[in-house]
Queue: 2 jobs
Job 1
Amino acid sequence: MTSPVVHLREITDDNREAVCALRVRHHQKQFVASVKRSLGHAAAAPKAHPWFRAVYCGDEPVGFVMLSWNPPTGRYRGRYFLWRLLIDKRYQRRGIGRAALEQIVELVRAEGATELLSSYETGEGDPWPFYEKFGFERTGELDDDEIVIRLPLPARGS
Ligand SMILES: CC(C)(COP(=O)(O)OP(=O)(O)OC[C@H]1O[C@@H](n2cnc3c(N)ncnc32)[C@H](O)[C@@H]1OP(=O)(O)O)[C@@H](O)C(=O)NCCC(=O)NCCS
């Protein structure tokens, strides 16, 4: 299967409503906050250095991604933490989540990151199979009852 072409775009007054209308499947709501709530969390936590983008296929918003980008303080100080990733239910299982994450990986690599961290809540339909296929591993730590995972990003050529 060829990878879908996806773009990460800034969220502005022009597309905020459409991006906030994205929805995951009913059973997935326990694993991820909505876009609207996530934007609220970002606004309330500037110290976490939130960085977010809409995921687009062509002119269609299809997903949302948010990181804590090299925050100066806190548990993930100086690191890159994938805080939210969601693909609208109509567009899942087409390779879009993976393609978006590949772009995130390139962006954080360009910043000199040697790993990308994340965490997930366990349960039926949790995103671990997606992350495991991508190459994430469990660190053995828990954060607020969530399983902490990391994607090692070895320097190219090593
Ligand atoms: C997890 C999520 C982002 C994956 O996005 P997606 O676009 O559907 O995933 P992709 O199509 O790129 O899948 C990539 C691979 O992972 C697999 N995969 C994706 N979701 C899976 C799942 N729930 N169970 C098993 N495999 C899964 C795909 O089959 C594919 O494998 P393949 O290459 O062997 O075909 C999406 O399901 C989602 O938004 N879930 C709800 C929110 C969530 O849990 N986010 C993560 C926590 S913040």
Job 2
Amino acid sequence: MQEVGREIFDAFPDWVRISFYSFAAIAILVFVIGAWLRANKYLKARKAHRSDHLLRRVGQAIAKVTLARSRIWKNDRFAGVAHDFILWGFLVLLLGTIILTVDEDLYKPFLGTSFLTGTIYLVYSFLLDLFGVLFLVGLVMMLYRRLRKTAPRLKYSEQDRAQGISIGRLIVDDRLFLFLLLLAGLAGFAAEGIRIFRDGTSFPQEWSPVGVALAWIVGATGIGAEGALTVHMGLWWLHAAGALLLIAYIPFSKAFHALAGFGSLVFSDDLAGRRLEPPASTESSGFRRVSDFTWVQLMHLDACVRCGRCHDVCPAQTSGMPLSPRGLILQLRSFVAGSKGNGGTTVVGNAIEPETIWSCAACLACMEACPLQIEHIPLIVEMRRSLVASGEMDKGLQEALTSLGRYGNSFRKPARDRAKWTKRLSPKVKDATREPVEYLWFVGDYASLDPRCQEMTIRTAEVFSKISLDFGILGEGESNAGNDVRRVGEEGLFEVLRDGNTKLIKTCKFRDIVTTDPHTYNTLKNEYPSLNEGRVLHYTELLDDLLRSGRLKFSKKLSYRATYHDPCYLGRYNGVFDAPRDLLKAMGVSLLEMPRNRANSFCCGAGGGRTWMEEGKGHGERPAEIRVREAARLDGVDTLVVACPKDYVMFTDAAKAAGLEGSLRIRDLIDLVEEAL
Ligand code: SF4
Ligand code: SF4
């Protein structure tokens, strides 16, 4: 085999080499300046305490975008395939360019020979051809999606409008970035074809199939040697121009997500949203100015690729409220870009309206959907903290917080009312503050005090008694666990509630804590750091455990055709998906899934303190109504099973409002357990 190799500037005149390196130096300089401006912003920002276990974090981030199939694949295979083609294609082409540069500018000048020859060059050539094709296919797929807007979420809405940024500009950036990549890729292949044509027929065809095919086409045009050189140079310049423009453009465009997005994955917190960070200091009153953001949060803002996945799944956006998680990120990004340090305008009230911040149900759907693990909820809570600190909240929320501060519950009921529901029970429910129990039942506000939920609470106690569970409650001493208090931004009150509950729980003797309320469950499990005894269980987990151990046995098969709604704070927040389903199946229930189930479940709209707030004007259909209609559309389903007191209340009201009262029964899972026992 004849020794094959590659000359980059082969027959080109010297000025080509000189001007290429000059333009490359300018492009790299622009890139470095742009990247420095961004990095400098991070360096000046508040600390984030996310640099621990750096190597592990980097490894996990690499796995998230490569081996473990990124979240881009989730619910959108087309985007997953396109993105992976572009990513892998780009990385291999970049590596190929680096190898070529090292060979041309370091190896050859010093050793007088090239290492890119013979078999090494043939393998190199083949891999670049293969990944180059994947790269182009991925780009065409992505452009098709963007141009044809095949997914509705790619369309920007009014909620995405940010100060100083027009939607038109966003669209241009979305496309320009892809076009530059496509230009560089197509021109690169064309230049390769004509180069091979000019090299003659000695090139082994199987090692560069695309280049050889293109060379054949060039040959068929009958072009002469001189013309071929001119065209080769033109195409080569086109390829170089696309690549150099892209390099310079990266820090100022969406393409920067390749760096900021990777950083976002490296420094993300898998418990973000589930376990909120306390304010930076005791004097801190949430986010007001750009200096309040941590460097990781600034990086998150830069990472957003405007894919709209968060927008698509947001219940607030779906029901026409003035919040889109994508819009929020764009508005914050625009605010940060236009801000000058500590001075200037405050974020809420200028860049973002308070109503936007209050519209969030803290359902975590946006964060679950985001392929770059951008953390929306902590940002929203920080802005809520600033609103709470200045007393800017609606009357309903104000009254609920006052009641929570005074009585430890949002129902304006004295503490002695909390255990009133136990009066109807025999044998008496144990007081865990006075005697040891196996299971400490943290009942929660809704289950204790809402008349519609009390029936369910009584049924739970009856089920526990029937299966001879040794359980007790905290009685009058229990206060709201504080999950939603924390998520509306009232950190001080949350700490009071948490510390009071922790102190009382620590006086009790028990093995595990059980609760029927997923909101309570989340905060006890993730946000009570000094509560390190025993497990925290949702009652469905406990019953599922007992079912597996044979302690819980059903004597009756239920013939319902039902669907199950995953509560956000149980499913998406804490990954409890199977226990409720296993129980339903064990009872003989024929279970049908709604289109949005498990981690994709659609929120009822009550979380994040929304249940205490007044409803704004001009909203479309409420999230709970959208959800009951989704359940009712399932073939033959007559029962919507819930496992959260708030869901029970929300869906019961929603079924009435949607006129589904006669056809869809809302039942708590405990209700069915009692029936099957
Ligand atoms: S947490 Fe839920 S309601 Fe809030 S912005 Fe995200 S998706 Fe929307
Ligand atoms: S925040 Fe995440 S999910 Fe939302 S548009 Fe940006 S990248 Fe996409």
